[in-house]
Amino acid sequence: MDNERIAELFEGLGPVSIRKMFGGKGIYFNGVIVAIVVRGELMLKADAESAPEFEAAGCRQWTYTGSRHGKLVAMPY
């Protein structure tokens, strides 16, 4: 996903800054990360209040298997 498209998606929020990170992109609003793009997939950052709303809308939390202990690690996206 290119930076122009990302900026369009967040237009209603206001101007965002986009930085390369972890092979993807971090999306920041007022200096705070609000989303990431990894392998072309946009992931919005959730908190205790918004996570249930995202889940109810059919979103799934980003998880991966940790290399140290082989345990599933849940990210806030």
Task: Output the keywords.
77 residues; alpha+beta; 2 domains; four-stranded antiparallel beta sheet; two-stranded antiparallel ribbon; 2 helices; globular
Average pLDDT number: 94
Computed Rg: 13 Å
Number of strands: 6
Assign a percent range to the helix content: 10-25%
List the strand order in the largest sheet: 1-2-3-4
List SSEs in N-to-C order.
HEEEEHEE
Shape: globular
Strand content: 35-45%
Terminal CA distance: 17 Å
Please, how many helices?
Answer: 2
Overall tally of structural domains? 2
**Helix/strand/pairing category:** alpha+beta
Q: Major sheet: size, sense and barrel closure?
A: 4 strands, antiparallel
Low-confidence stretches: none
Write a concise synopsis of the structure shown.
The chain is α+β, with helices and mostly antiparallel strands. The chain is built from 2 helices and 6 strands, in the order αββββαββ.
Describe this structure in words.
- By secondary structure, this protein is an alpha+beta fold.
- It has helices at residues 3-9, 51-56, and strands at 17-21, 24-29, 32-38, 41-44, 63-65, 72-74.
- The protein folds into 2 domains: 1-45; 50-77, no CATH class.
- The protein contains 2 helices and 6 strands.
- A 4-stranded antiparallel beta sheet has the order 1-2-3-4, with helices on one face. Strands 5-6 form a two-stranded antiparallel ribbon.
- 4% of the residues are buried.
Strand and helix layout:
Blueprint: H1 3-9, E1 17-21, E2 24-29, E3 32-38, E4 41-44, H2 51-56, E5 63-65, E6 72-74
Antiparallel strand pairs: 1-2, 2-3, 3-4, 5-6
